[in-house]
Amino acid sequence: MSANSTTSKFASQTESTAMSEALSTASQNSETASTALSTAMSETLSALSNNGGGNNGNGGNTGNGGNNGNGGSTLPNGNGEDGYLTLNNAIATIVQRHVETVIYDKPNGKITNRELAEGTDWKAFQQYTDANGLVWYNLGGNQWIKSTGVILDAKPFTYKELSKVGVVKPGTSAPVYSLPGVKGQLNGQVLKAGTAWHISASVYTNDGTLWYRVGTNQWVKAEFINLRGEQGFRDVATIKYAKGYGIAVWTDANESAATGKKLEAGSSWQVFGKTVGKNGHTFYNIGGKQWIDGTYVILRSSHSTTVVPKSQTTIKYVPGYGIKTWQSPTSKVSGETLLDGQTYSVWATEVVNNNVWYQVGDNQWIQGKFTTGLR
């Protein structure tokens, strides 16, 4: 998600255009809370106010923490009395997960028809603490948001949505905070060394610290985390699963969503990459946004399979009894039973952990130690 993006369920085309132009101007001229950013945000919020955002006049926001236009809104002095405090060059960044930040016409007032998207930055002019201790931020005129999931010390335009796996570095542990930056409180949870976690977002704070989000209201400092990325990898994967069934194909290695496609047991697929999923399993990429769990595959490169020409073997077991066939030398799924004394054609041999296996049919492998050998 771009830090310049916004969500407005009912905003008109005029409002959207004004917002885009204002944020674009700010992004091009500054990566910090500069004058360009403050002006852009002020103009954006004024444009919203002119079209029903709570100001009925010209919304002339001078950027000094009070709306001096004739839109019918006058903010308190902001000297700390009555819970109000003026903010100087403050940028409010929305960091809460999957929850839109709604705009109120005043603290504990009525909800307007606008919402601010996760990851967006907004100029904040005043702070108010209500009787219940809840902090509110004023974004200009009659536009207030709760401070829940909002921080004032993020570097503008550094918030990013991610979908990666992070592993806690060896010899360390990662304390978990409720929020990144100075507002963050330790929640008592500590991530142990070597454990893997899904990283869904990152943000830099003004002190230069990079933070990763590992859950709702759960943030850790990046200094304790190694990110795992996708590696280029070429091989052939054969699906090892129950006969007649298949495994799911996922859009990413974190199993965020299934594609609806199933790969049948015994089928083989080209592999183009690999990575580690949030469940700790290796996932293989079979093209585009198609990932499969390595738990259910056999890689061609992991075993030495030799095709043998016109060979046969005879089952050598207990008279009247037989041995099981298996879908592959490493499969836990068995098939039919081959009786002692019966002879079968052998298609290929494979050595796994110093044990010889014979392939006697499609997805049918037997252990060589229960036969007379090849002839």
TrEMBL record:
Entry-linked InterPro entries: SlpA_C_lactobacillus
Residue span, S-layer protein C-terminal domain: 261-292
Pfam families: SlpA
Source domain of life: Bacteria
UniProt-annotated stretches for the region Disordered: 1-77
Gly residues composition-biased segments: 51-72
Residue ranges, compositional bias (Polar residues): 1-47
Signal peptide extent: none
Protein name, UniProt field: S-layer protein C-terminal domain-containing protein
Species of the source: Lacticaseibacillus brantae DSM 23927
